[in-house]
Amino acid sequence: MDDVFVKRSRTAPPGFYAVEAAGLRWLAAAGGASVVVPLEVTDDRIVLPRLTPVAPSPAAAEAFGRALATTHRAGAPWFGAPPPGVSGAGFIAELPLPMTDGAPAWGEFYAAARLRPYAAGAWSASLDAVCDRLAAGDETLTGPPEPPARLHGDLWSGNVVWTAAGAVLVDPAAHGGHRETDLAMLALFGLPHLDRVLAAYDEAHPLADGWRDRVALHQLHPLLVHARLFGGHYKSEATRAADSYT
């Protein structure tokens, strides 16, 4: 059928598409940013409506910023909370994405479940020091405490599809996390009209002081994921990001 997109992969681990569908439904339930809604899910595929991309406009970018703020504000029960119906780990790309039964603070969660599990082959003394500071709840690093946000979790520019109706999100690694993580990933690989997105987001859901200084901290996780998947310069980029906080 021309109006659907069938996604399948021979290397997808068991449960991969069920987790993706649960994440999409959880994000959709927030009533904020538009997401592609699954039409069918089986063990070996997910069927989605086909999206027709268009060039993004500044107005669409601003609308997306406001809508993403609404998604984040919908919240999550705790840091590392999975979407409803998901037990055990989720996925980012096709790597396991650890979830938690609850974490007292974002820094502890981020160090234990988003940095250390992905650092094989890209570990450094500076990354170790950053993880120690995070686990200790050092607010000069983490910023002020915030409640868990409902994150897309893999919000690079390729997972934002601009359509005639506005931005539509695909391929989530949804979980409860820090809202600055989604925004930092938008910046990592570049998003059209990002300045408009961020300004509209900040107006709708003001960001804490110093958030720009924490962008590289929140980019550490996707950099380590890419280092695991692709190696190469992502390892050195992760090291440089960690070095900036030591």
Q: How is the topology of this model organized?
A:
Layout: E1 4-7, H1 16-29, E2 34-35, E3 40-42, E4 45-49, H2 58-73, E5 90-92, E6 95-97, H3 106-115, H4 125-135, H5 139-142, E7 149-151, E8 160-163, E9 166-169, E10 175-177, H6 179-188, H7 194-204, H8 215-230, H9 233-243
Parallel strand pairs: 2-9
Antiparallel strand pairs: 1-4, 3-4, 5-6, 7-10, 8-9
Helix pairs in contact: 2-7, 3-4, 4-9, 6-8, 8-9
How would you describe what is shown here?
- With 246 residues, this protein is of the alpha+beta class.
- The chain contains 9 helices and 10 strands.
- A 3-stranded antiparallel β-sheet has the order 1-4-3, covered by helices on one side. Strands 2-9-8 form a 3-stranded mixed β-sheet.
- Strand 5 and strand 6 (95-97) form a beta hairpin.
- The chain is globular, with a radius of gyration of 17 Å.
Question: Quick recap of the structure?
Answer:
This protein has one domain: Alpha-Beta Complex (Aminoglycoside 3'-phosphotransferase, Chain: A, domain 2), CATH 3.90.1200.10. 42% of the residues lie in helices and 14% in strands.
